[in-house]
Write a structure and sequence with these properties.
196 residues, alpha+beta, single chain, 36% strand, globular
Length: 196
């Protein structure tokens, strides 16, 4: 299975603090607020794990991202977008906004290695509280196309009306801040209780 995408997919949405959000289901809330490595959780929830790098390059962040990164001052950023797949199904879209200084100092040659593997194995990276968002899948799916079997394609077409949930947080490393945002896609076990 592979995913094609117009890089960057982007994630210009309105974000809410946890106090402002009404997360409807316990399983979804558990996935959204899990402070551990999402990559490790996806790996443990599936038989076959894969990560597809959609792209990584120097780009200007969205205005809502720049607002969280003010402490960095004027600096260059790289945008990294990936999809985490479980059992050959896309489960999570992730977008990271990383200062060039962190790329050069700590994250060079990341390639298709999960960013979380580096962040969660280095105590110098400290995570903030989460913000959450919702967005209609049909708005998000116009940028992602799954190249897989027809059953999966039919499932994605049926899920275009589904409301997706995402989360983001800021990791601080020394004097630098980076953003990691993740959106749970329709096949994700975060929505398992909603399946009827």
């Amino acid at each position: 299975m592979s995913i094609t995408a117009d890089f960057p997919v982007g994630l210009a949405v309105d974000w809410l603090s946890l106090a402002e959000a009404n997360i409807p289901e316990p399983t979804l809330k558990d996935w959204l607020l899990d402070t551990g490595s999402l990559t490790e959780r996806v790996q443990s929830a599936c038989g076959e794990f894969s990560l597809q790098l959609l792209g990584q390059q120097a780009l200007e962040p969205h205005s809502t991202e720049l607002a969280l990164l003010q402490a960095n001052g004027q600096t260059a950023y790289q945008i990294r977008e990936i999809v985490l797949c479980g059992d050959e199904q896309p489960w999570v879209f992730a977008r990271s906004v990383i200062p060039q200084a962190i790329i050069e100092a700590e994250l060079s040659n990341l390639g298709s290695e999960p960013l979380g593997k580096r962040l969660f194995n280095d105590k110098r990276f400290v995570r903030s509280e989460f913000q959450v968002c919702t967005l209609p899948y049909e708005q998000f799916s116009q940028h992602l196309a799954e190249q897989s079997n027809s059953q999966s394609s039919a499932q994605l077409k049926n899920d275009t009306k589904q409301k997706l949930w995402g989360r983001r947080s800021v990791f601080t490393f020394e004097s630098h801040h980076l953003i990691v945002a993740e959106v749970f896609l329709p096949g994700s076990p975060a929505y398992a209780q909603n399946e009827g």
